[in-house]
Design goal:
Length: 266
């Protein structure tokens, strides 16, 4: 009698996000060229590069706002290249774009309720106020009248409260005071610790690398480095790949979407 066959090995966990040889851009203009990138399930990845490198274009392609002209996009192992943005949201993707990403004409409470899963509206508001007690006194305020820091708290806390599987963050700290940035990064860290995958574009390179386990560098639409974030702690690496000074203040410059950077806000 033959011995029983050994059990099949368990399948490896699919990455939360995978881009395979993606080319993308705007109205016939190519911005990303043959980009391959992975964000592990429950992990944090920093996406870095100079202004105009294609970082925002990559996030828009992942979120479904742009359709790649070549290559494939996978979410949790499933191909989503042709899936519209709202379908990706239903799968657990949350996009926090540069420029706050809120509904300015609605109140703070209405913003939170609108983003909440049905039946969990009160829980979403409670979690948001616990994370940012400052918002608790602003629930009836129109979101567009909040300070820049308060608006960014609102944009981030909807992702924290609704527990998506993958969060895309584009320049979360842009124009904000250091104390506000500290609190925002505390929330990002808590999200990763509870298993939310994160793809982070961030002007504060050191903060991004402290949070991320992996990093990608983009230059002129192509990946010029991918590997452990710890390997990018030395400023010499950035100067070698990107010809930039890590300590330089980038406020006032334009990003790859042409949006001017703002001065610090509260």
């Amino acid at each position: 009698m033959s011995a029983p066959a050994p059990p099949a090995p368990a399948p490896a966990t699919a990455p939360a996000l995978a881009l395979e040889n993606v080319t993308s851009g705007y109205q016939g203009t190519t911005v990303l060229r043959d980009v391959t990138l992975r964000v592990p399930a429950g992990g944090a990845v920093a996406l870095l590069g100079p202004n105009g490198a294609g970082k925002t274009t990559l996030l828009r392609t992942v979120s479904g706002l742009l359709r790649p002209t070549a290559g494939q996009v996978y979410f949790d192992g499933a191909k989503v290249t042709a899936l519209p943005a709202h379908r990706r949201v239903r799968l657990g993707l949350c996009d926090i774009p540069e420029g706050r990403g809120i509904f300015p004409s609605l109140t703070v409470r209405e913003n939170l309720v609108l983003q909440s899963p049905r039946g969990r509206e009160k829980q979403t508001v409670d979690v948001a106020v616990e994370a940012f007690p400052r918002l608790g006194n602003l629930l009836k305020r129109t979101a567009g009248t909040l300070s820049g820091g308060e608006q960014q708290m609102l944009a981030l806390v909807r992702a924290y409260a609704t527990e998506p599987r993958l969060v895309l963050v584009d320049e979360l700290s842009l124009g904000l005071a250091p104390l506000v940035v500290d609190r925002l990064f505390e929330i990002l860290t808590a999200m990763v610790e509870r298993g939310t995958a994160l793809l982070l574009v961030e002007q504060y390179v050191t903060r991004a690398l402290e949070l991320a386990s992996e990093a990608y560098l983009l230059a002129r639409g192509s990946v010029v480095f991918s590997g452990p974030a710890a390997d990018l702690s030395d400023a010499d690496v950035f100067e070698h790949y990107l010809s930039i000074d890590v300590g330089r203040d980038t406020a006032g410059q334009a990003d790859d979407s042409g949006t001017p950077r703002r001065a610090p806000d509260e």
